[in-house]
Description:
Helix 10 packs across helix 11. By secondary structure, this protein is mostly helical. It has helices at residues 2-19, 54-57, 78-82, 86-91, 109-121, 133-152, 157-174, 180-188, 195-209, 216-225, 227-239; strands at 62-67, 72-77, 101-104.
Amino acid sequence: MGASTDESKAVVVADLRALTMDEVLPMPTSSPPSDNQTLVLTTTNATSQDDRLICDDMGSDIVQILVGREKRLFTIHKDLLLATGDAFVKAFDPKKNTKGRITMSSKSPDVVKLFIDFIYTRNVPAVTSIMSESSKFRRIRNLCQLFVFTEELDLLPIIRNQIFDKIQDGFLLLGKLPDTSLISSIYRNTSVTSHLRKFVAACLVYQVRNCINFEMDAIVDLFKSNEDIVKDFLTMVHYFIPDQDPR
């Protein structure tokens, strides 16, 4: 029994190493958003867009969100929330929602806090050098959850782009790549089209090709846990460019 397992693992390892030596193709890239591209908030105020303050856009109506199992209450200016995407416009349609309140039991209050911070500052909270190591890791995981949150609700692309930038910057600041636990969690909670999947798969290829602190056994177990990970890994192998860090 043990010998058979060892032989199977050896075959997988050999195949993995062989695959990572395939011919590489250039990674397709999308045009970065313009520096002038900003979150456009719903407003009737005549103040010019380049001179706007958050108070010009918040309005006076307030809505509430109950988050998590304990139903933690968050109170938010309605106009700011609705400006992030149609999901909230529909959720707070006065014809269907007369209480001005919704419940998001499956969401993490810590993740929603990041989202609300972004709404009021127009900046996604980052991983910073002054944080403790544990706080850095917690922030990066919460940012990944925040990205999944915005994908699920199909919020504005500019919001997702800003979050994704903070995720990349965070891993770079940490000097780390996504670990197998995080990769597995991302694949369990995202769709096959998720940009976050492509990112962690590209990071995994980069890690293997450059022999950066990885355990082959852990990667083999990761592949066995979800065939989508294998598919994305093989796709990213062909797009791999030496010395191009995906972070």
